[in-house]
Write the structure tokens for this entry.
Amino acid sequence: MNKYFWLACILNLVLGALSFFVLALLIMSFIYIADALSWIIDPTLDEGILLLLLILSITISGIYFLILIFTNINLLKKIDMKKSHYIIFTLVILIFGLSTFYYLLYLL
């Protein structure tokens, strides 16, 4: 195993943990959209945050997925693995990072 393999492990673990925040922002956006369309009525939601939250979630999601895609493409070129094995490896590490971060938040 070369140093790029371990770099890919650590990087995908961190990106998996960061995906928790991206998913949380997207879920909050959907809740505010449903409230704006009167699909749900929740008096605890603040008025006027919908546009700000949508812009923030779209921007952060775009930056996150660009970083995820381009870094893994560059690391795939440096690691001697089949593309299908690298995709499976990346998905497993991302899911492990997401679940580990969620579990650590649950402990707090």
User: Anything to note?
Assistant: The chain has one domain: 3-107. The chain is about 80% helix and 0% strand. Helices lie at 3-36, 50-78, 83-107.
